[in-house]
Amino acid sequence: MQTRTQRPARPGTTLARRSVAAAAVGATSGAIRQAHGPESATTDRKAAGRMAADCPHAIQRPWVQAAWALVAVALACSAAACSGSRPSGAADAAYSSAAAGPSAAQPGDSGAAAAPPAAQTGGFDGTRAWKYLETIVGFGPRPPASANIHREQKYLASQLRSFGCHVSTDEFHAQTGVGPLAMENIVAEIPGKNPGIILLLSHYDTVRLAGFVGANDGGSSTAILLEIAHDLCGRPGPLGVWIAFLDGEEEQTNFTSEYQAQTTWTANNNTYGSRELAARMDLSGDLKNVKALMLSDMDGDSDLHIMRDSTSTPWLENLVWSVANRLGYSRYFLSSPMSVTDDHTPFLQKGVPAVDLIGNIGPITPEASFGIYWHTLQDNLEHCSAHSLAVTGHVFLATIQALDDKFAPAHHR
Ligand SMILES: [Zn+2]
């Protein structure tokens, strides 16, 4: 990938530059169709977290079948009312896994007070992560190319540098549904003693909806990865760890209602930052060194349920779930599979082992697979907790250690 240690000036000429990802989209979409069936299946995703009542979503099967079932769904439902699908099994699993042990945060707990000491969460400081989250949310709505996201970008880069991270930035322009937008990926690179790389991802932009601050969707994962960078920068491990903060994950449409924001997901009008990063790392040759990719998305809810994405790489997902079980967090990790298109997807398409740790925003119901506050103005700090940030961060750190053990045996360290 393009590496710069300083934030470059924004010359006017860059406006005309197409992003690498945009150029690569045509080449990758064919692969999607091959893997998932007809083109309509490529519009499944995330956006279907809210399902139209008249759409018969009852997909509880492996992803290949799910993709074909989506074709039937697409035929049965109008595109506007039902642009994709999430299996209803997710909601059922959430209900059945709701019983929490004595050490669990209770629904409704929120704020730094709920964070366990860092010593109990592998060194991950949930209280410090919560402070990052408060700062990020304090910038207000952060859609791509907004004044607020520019403030957030400066904050992220300066924090990472203050941790001793080597920071690379990639500024690119994306042709989006609302016109050309300047976007920026920010990557902290922690070198390893071996050539292999563990890649961590979070998007830091928020939905293009007036008043939407994205405490959980965009905020929580960014705060978690900032704290991981704080813990790992300056401490090279057996494998390199790259921590990428991605722009432009959300659908680039100027939404006029929460319902519209919950039901609109257009092929190739989202995941701009991840497509850019995947394309750049492919060109630079770094991609082939990525041993595992872990994506954090919406992992801050005070009653956390992390979904089991059926498109993720099985061995890696199993590893994460086994680490979570070992740490006593099984109540937060659902077992029912579902299919999610997210920032890990462009990397999966290029053969990178990847797992999406995608959580919920508010209570999950059959009509709201991502939770009732997903893509609403209720996605605020009140519904997040430092405890959930700490649980997720702990699992990330422990999985990194497990990956070190797997790919860099002791005699290679
Ligand atoms: Zn979102």
Provide an overview of this structure.
The protein is α/β, with parallel strands linked by helices and 413 residues long. It has a single domain (14-412), classed as 3-Layer(aba) Sandwich (Aminopeptidase), CATH 3.40.630.10. The protein contains eleven helices and eight strands. Strands 1-2-4-3-5-8 form a six-stranded mixed β-sheet, sandwiched between helices. Strands 6-7 form a two-stranded parallel sheet. Helix 6 (215-232) links the parallel strand 3 and strand 4 (240-246). Helix 4 (126-138) packs across helix 11 (386-407) and helix 9 (314-326) packs across helix 11 (386-407). The longest helix has 22 residues, at 386-407. The chain is globular. The two termini are 26 Å apart. 58% of the residues are buried. Zinc ion (ZN) binds at residues 207, 217, 250, 375.
- Largest sheet features: 6 strands, mixed
CA radius of gyration: 19 Å
CATH topology: Aminopeptidase
| Mean pLDDT over the full residue set | 79
**Helical residue percent?**
25-40%
For the record, what is the CATH homologous superfamily label?
Zn peptidases
**In total, how many domains does the architecture comprise?**
1
Globally, the shape reads globular
Q: What is the helix/strand order?
A: HHHHHEEEHEHHEEHEHEH
Q: Quickly count the helices.
A: 11
Helix-strand makeup class: alpha/beta
Compounds present?
Answer: zinc ion
The CATH architecture comes to: 3-Layer(aba) Sandwich
